[in-house]
């Protein structure tokens, strides 16, 4: 349709098209946010496994059947495990956005920034992932991570278990927040998808030509044109017959 056909209708249709395009971008943002949140959660799931292993080793260290040499071996294992926990925090990112702590290149173990996702056509249509600090500093494990040689005694093993339990609680809190945020985003995506479909249908109703009516009108004009051609043909034929009679 041209603007001259229905100026007001075309303006409304264009506005609906812009709205649908904005909503579709919001849906795309939402899908990216879900991917980001899933990466964060899977990384923290691995960290949770590490903490479970550390807890088991501390229990092993806090028993009389474990020798001093055995505790030293356990200390080395725990040190490697907590180093890996920190590596996960440093490395986990989505397209360069760090998720479990601040940007690793900054040389800090500070918390990550809050990540805000625009899931909709308006600037106010946002959902926020809270800050995370899933490293040994943020989880309160610096003492356990910094044990010197022969530093793992039964007393340290006991206090270490308490620290690990607290770290697991903190990590579970982060994961719970991630899960809630993902549920919010997925709900918003479903709502936006419905909106986009309805808006596109409304646009089509306004913009699209009534093809049935146009087809009927075309057929009518075609019949009239054919009838006119037939009449002219008949007139020419009659004229030729008269001329032959006069010859």
Based on the model shown, name its key terms.
single chain, 247 residues, mainly alpha, f41 fragment of flagellin, N-terminal domain, two-stranded antiparallel ribbon, rod-shaped
Per-chain topology:
Blueprint (H helix, E strand, L loop, with lengths): L6 H55 L6 H24 L1 E2 L2 E2 L16 E4 L7 E4 L12 H4 L8 H54 L3 H36 L1
Antiparallel strand pairs: 1-2, 3-4
Folded structure, characterized:
With 247 residues, the chain is mostly helical. It folds into two domains: 7-207, f41 fragment of flagellin, N-terminal domain, CATH 1.20.1330; 212-247. Helices cover 70% and strands 5% of the residues. The strands form two sheets. The protein has a two-stranded antiparallel sheet with strand order 1-2. β3 and β4 form a beta hairpin. α1 (7-61) packs antiparallel against α2 and α1 packs antiparallel against α4 (154-207). The longest helix is centred in the first third of the chain and has 55 residues, at 7-61. The model has no long low-confidence stretch (mean pLDDT 87).
């Amino acid at each position: 349709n041209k603007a001259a056909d229905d100026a007001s209708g075309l303006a409304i249709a264009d506005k609906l098209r812009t709205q649908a395009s904005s909503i579709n971008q919001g849906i795309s943002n939402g899908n990216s946010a879900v991917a980001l949140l899933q990466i964060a959660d899977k990384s923290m799931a691995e960290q949770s496994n590490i903490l479970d292993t550390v807890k088991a080793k501390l229990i092993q260290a806090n028993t009389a059947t474990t020798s001093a040499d055995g505790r030293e071996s356990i200390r080395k294992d725990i040190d490697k495990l907590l180093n890996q926990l920190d590596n996960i925090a440093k490395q986990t990112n989505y397209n360069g956005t760090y998720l479990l702590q601040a940007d690793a290149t900054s040389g800090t173990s500070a918390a990550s920034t809050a990540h805000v996702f625009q899931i909709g056509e308006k600037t106010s249509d946002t959902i926020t992932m809270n800050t995370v600090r899933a490293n040994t500093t943020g989880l309160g494990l610096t003492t356990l991570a910094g044990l010197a040689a022969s530093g793992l005694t039964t007393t340290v093993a006991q206090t270490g278990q308490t620290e690990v339990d607290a770290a697991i609680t903190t990590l579970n809190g982060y994961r719970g927040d991630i899960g809630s945020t993902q549920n919010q985003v997925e709900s918003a995506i479903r709502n936006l998808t419905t909106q986009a479909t309805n808006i596109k249908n409304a646009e089509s109703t306004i913009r699209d030509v009534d093809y049935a009516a146009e087809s009927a009108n075309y057929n009518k004009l075609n019949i009239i044109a054919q009838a006119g051609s037939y009449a002219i043909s008949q007139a020419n034929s009659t004229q030729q017959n008269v001329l032959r009679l006069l010859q």
